[in-house]
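Intended use. Records like the one below are meant for learning the mapping from a protein sequence to its folded structure. Do not use them to infer anything beyond what is encoded.
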Amino acid sequence: MLIVVSQHNAPLHWDALASMHQLRRKVFKERLAWDVNVVNGLELDQFDIPDAHYLLHCNDAGRVDACTRLLPTTGPYLLADVFPQLIDGEAPRSPLVWESTRFCADHDTAPTNIAAILMAGMLEFGVFLELAAYVSVSDIRMEAIMRRAGWPPVRLGGTMDTGTDIAAAERLDVSREALKRVRSRAGAVGPIIANLNEIASAAVAA
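Structure written out for the chain above:
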């Protein structure tokens, strides 16, 4: 199962959030050698902001071994503010379109089908919020993984060599049909996010 953590329920999940930032350091700084910011062993960037929601998968030891960050495109986000050249046209600015970034997993402990599990979680969250789509900046090798998971991306423009990979911008449409398909590829027969009720309660309280 996955959990989703935002500013509203973060006090319930401080340990998981710290573990996620440690995983991001391990993947992006140590394994992929990206030029990222690490503070006290935690990888952080300018998009770890109050609007961010984090989709987390924990292993049996309680450590986060896979994650992605989800951000509404109504505020600052990576594609619009850092990689707008990857889009033919204007970057999306809509409450119905969110961005997924920092999608990663620990190869040593995460399930072999973790990409499909995370994507099923993204779709479940997207259906819950009644989103139209996600956008993402990804290594183009991720596109084949998305298609295998049953969630084919649509490129929004050309590609660029970042020095560590070949990046492209993609749009991934959100629908109940896509959720059903990706859940099946992930081997899930029902809901895959364990705590959507926490987000729903926070929304009501707000």
